Structure of 50S ribosomal protein L35:
Amino acid sequence: MPKQKTRRGAAKRFRLTGSGKLKRNKANHRHMLIRRSKGVKRKMRNAGIVDGSDSQKVRRMLGV
Protein backbone atom coordinates (compact mmCIF):
# COMPACT_ATOMS: atom_id res chain seq x y z
CA MET A 1 0.00 0.00 0.00
CA PRO A 2 1.45 3.42 -0.92
CA LYS A 3 2.26 6.04 1.68
CA GLN A 4 -0.25 8.79 2.34
CA LYS A 5 0.85 12.12 0.90
CA THR A 6 0.70 15.28 2.98
CA ARG A 7 -1.24 18.20 1.53
CA ARG A 8 1.61 20.67 1.22
CA GLY A 9 -0.60 23.77 1.42
CA ALA A 10 -2.02 22.58 4.73
CA ALA A 11 1.45 21.70 6.03
CA LYS A 12 2.55 25.30 5.48
CA ARG A 13 -0.49 26.73 7.27
CA PHE A 14 -0.90 24.51 10.35
CA ARG A 15 1.46 23.36 13.12
CA LEU A 16 0.88 20.68 15.73
CA THR A 17 1.46 21.77 19.35
CA GLY A 18 2.99 19.62 22.06
CA SER A 19 -0.42 18.85 23.54
CA GLY A 20 -1.78 17.74 20.15
CA LYS A 21 -3.77 20.85 19.23
CA LEU A 22 -3.42 22.55 15.86
CA LYS A 23 -2.08 26.11 15.64
CA ARG A 24 -3.02 28.44 12.80
CA ASN A 25 -2.38 32.03 11.79
CA LYS A 26 -5.25 34.49 11.87
CA ALA A 27 -6.68 35.94 8.67
CA ASN A 28 -6.93 39.57 7.47
CA HIS A 29 -3.46 40.65 8.58
CA ARG A 30 -1.73 41.26 5.23
CA HIS A 31 -2.87 44.61 3.87
CA MET A 32 -5.44 47.40 4.37
CA LEU A 33 -4.51 47.55 8.06
CA ILE A 34 -4.61 51.32 8.43
CA ARG A 35 -8.32 51.31 9.26
CA ARG A 36 -8.01 48.62 11.94
CA SER A 37 -7.41 49.51 15.57
CA LYS A 38 -4.18 48.72 17.39
CA GLY A 39 -5.92 46.18 19.59
CA VAL A 40 -7.35 44.24 16.65
CA LYS A 41 -3.97 44.17 14.92
CA ARG A 42 -2.28 42.99 18.11
CA LYS A 43 -4.80 40.17 18.56
CA MET A 44 -4.33 39.04 14.96
CA ARG A 45 -0.58 38.73 15.57
CA ASN A 46 -1.09 35.83 18.00
CA ALA A 47 -1.70 32.34 16.69
CA GLY A 48 -5.13 30.80 16.99
CA ILE A 49 -6.21 27.22 17.68
CA VAL A 50 -8.13 25.22 15.07
CA ASP A 51 -11.71 24.50 16.17
CA GLY A 52 -12.54 20.94 17.16
CA SER A 53 -15.03 20.49 14.33
CA ASP A 54 -12.30 21.27 11.75
CA SER A 55 -9.36 19.60 13.45
CA GLN A 56 -10.18 16.09 12.20
CA LYS A 57 -10.17 17.29 8.57
CA VAL A 58 -6.92 19.18 9.03
CA ARG A 59 -5.27 16.17 10.70
CA ARG A 60 -6.23 14.02 7.73
CA MET A 61 -4.69 16.58 5.37
CA LEU A 62 -1.49 16.60 7.41
CA GLY A 63 -1.35 12.82 7.63
CA VAL A 64 -1.31 12.87 11.45
